[in-house]
Amino acid sequence: MPGKQQEIERLEQRAADPAFWSDQREAQGAMQRLTRLKQEVERWQRLGVQLANLTELLELAALEDDPSLYDDLRAEIHIAGNELEQGELALLLNGNYDDRDAFLSVQAGMGGTDAQDWAEMLLRMYVRWAETRGYQVNVVDESAGDEAGIKSATLELRGPYAYGYAKAEAGVHRLIRLSPFNSAHTRQTSFARVEVMPEVDDAPEVVINPDDLRIDVYRSGGHGGQGVNTTDSAVRLTHLPTGIIVSCQNERSQLQNRETAMRVLRGRLLEQELQRQREERLRLRGEYRKADFGSQMRTYYLHPSTLVKDHRTDVETSNVQAVLDGDIDPFIEAYLRWSMSDET
Known about the structure:
alpha+beta, 11 strands
């Protein structure tokens, strides 16, 4: 708490400097950080007041032995318990970049048209989830499938602790269902990979040499009509040392697409470095296992029964439709608690 209050004071002093607002993106990021810190401090202060009130109410109930006071006590304990649970969850979001905005990428894997349809189902699931949380959602780039669905897509998620929550979804997602894309209507297993990257401009782990970039511009795709872009505004960045390719075509301005693509690239490079650090820790503990399309982190069963099962935390639900409609918070919260216990 003292450290967070000191950072609040430091950010408020920076905001009072007129020069602070010369860089709008940096200023907005700092103000978002200030708002989140204030909300976190207020949550714990509010809980402290609730606990003090509970103590007084408990003492009063013991003195007067009034049944109505016990009813009030139960209600207050329930409220304080919910507040404590939210506070505990916030404590799990203590990574260096957990409070940042995020980029979430979905890529179709093995399974042909079914996999591309599955990737689009996942994309819809994450859009619904983000909107339920009040996040601002933008499609940065999208590549349509050959017959249906998508080959890949990248979302920009803006909101409190977007990366901290969304990182729980990174990994391989497997779908088992009766295929709607073959005449025999046979059982099909499809895969899609989800990547989540923090949006950062100031990560010391990421240094991009301009000489390491190849920049290509091309005409944005679209559905035609008046909204089609007739200029070469889409941008594709290739980071030569790593082979990472990032595209952006959602803006009409080539400059804006390039800036967004650079933010995605920084996020990918940072997430790659963070993943390397995680894998190194696991190697030292003898627990490292490569993540590929044979090591899915969650399976969605639509046939013969309905079930969604997370293979990391063993959390499961039979309400598959609710999950596909964006109700994934139980999986995310279980992952945050699991990852904390796993690291310790």
